[in-house]
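Batch job 17 of 40 flagged for manual review because the log was empty.
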Amino acid sequence: MMQKYFFIALFVITSFTCFSQQIDKDFLLLKQRMDSVSSFTAKLVLDVDISFINMPTKQATLNYNRGKRMKIDAKDFVLLPKRGLDFSLNSLTEYPYITVDRGKEVKNGRLCKVLNIIPTDAKADFSIATVWLDQKAKRLHTTEINTKKDGAYQMALEYQKAKDVLPQKVEVSFEIEKLKIPVNFLGKGSSIDRKKMKATAVKKGKIYLLLSYASIKMAV
């Protein structure tokens, strides 16, 4: 009798494990669509919205190659969160993971499918992420990533054309204290209101990015 219960329990545990490790089909389709972009180069215009930091508009060049993190080249200092510019999904799928369906939600006027991305490997540098998928347009709408060391980030994407897979505008929201900004060096024309910085209890910020693509190479 005990042996019978053992096999039943083993079957239940195995079935639950297989079920829990299913990866959402819509997310896989989105990843395949993002993976179809092998590389791109874009001019980047960046503006900062932080109450105690005055920084003029910055310009930089953004380079991406599939399977690698995006790189930014700038003559002057560019204030950008470490995790704030990854719409390729590489950072979320670098290590084994599972997805959990959280249903549907209207986000900024778009009906989205909401998924939690949970890494199953301790090497991943985030604990959990939430993604909002625009199912109608088959592309990424918003992500929210809770990192293990750098706080939480939210990234909202806007697209120029209905068929575009790469965004034209990106808004990144983040926690200042977790970001560890080198506030003594923000580039030319920048300044910090230190009194206001100390008086601000909850320090948050936003960065607005405008991208114009110089080249986009698709996988053959």
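Reviewer: the log was empty due to a logging misconfiguration, but the result itself is present. The radius of gyration is 20 Å. Unflagging and moving on to job 18.
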